[in-house]
């Protein structure tokens, strides 16, 4: 069942965010900027869209992978949505390995093919399965590893921030969303996603 928690009253303006949203999680301040505009977080859809959809996900989460094509479809058809993807690897070592590898691919301009390859995997991931999926896109693990090592501080910092934010929003697992000023803990179907976007836009 999808649960919702309003972060900001519909009548409040953006200026009110500073009084409502910030909180501390493991010493990190959670703000509008860090949630919606983290410079290291991958953004798909329309970078200048009037509504931001933030998804916290794990490459081993079957529900994340099941709804991913629908999420992309809604964002594409709307045309005015920023989709911010936040890795939250909660299913163990293989999930962390997958997140780091795809974020490494992002550093060499290959985020989308790497992310899509992992989203199409089935079953429990292993490091070998991650490597197989990524190399099927034409990437090599040597170049991915080099990118991860070169940008290790950037990648680990992003994953730490994602983790802190997910806990600050009281999310219990993946997928979880922040759309406009409302959180959605759990799976959204197409109708629910479109409604959430429309409500965020109206607000």
Automatic annotation (TrEMBL):
Q: Which InterPro entries match?
A: TAT_signal, Thioredoxin-like_fold, Thioredoxin-like_sf, Thioredoxin_domain
Query: Is this entry keyworded Protein biosynthesis?
Result: no
Identify the keywords attached in UniProt to this record, alphabetized.
Answer: Disulfide bond, Oxidoreductase, Redox-active center, Signal
Q: Where is the signal peptide?
A: none
Task: Give the Thioredoxin domain ranges.
Answer: 10-202
- List, alphabetically, the Pfam families matched: Thioredoxin_4
- What superkingdom heads the lineage? Bacteria
Q: Which family does it belong to?
A: Belongs to the thioredoxin family. DsbA subfamily.
Protein role: May be required for disulfide bond formation in some proteins.
Protein name according to UniProt: DSBA oxidoreductase
Q: What species was this sequence derived from?
A: Pseudorhizobium halotolerans
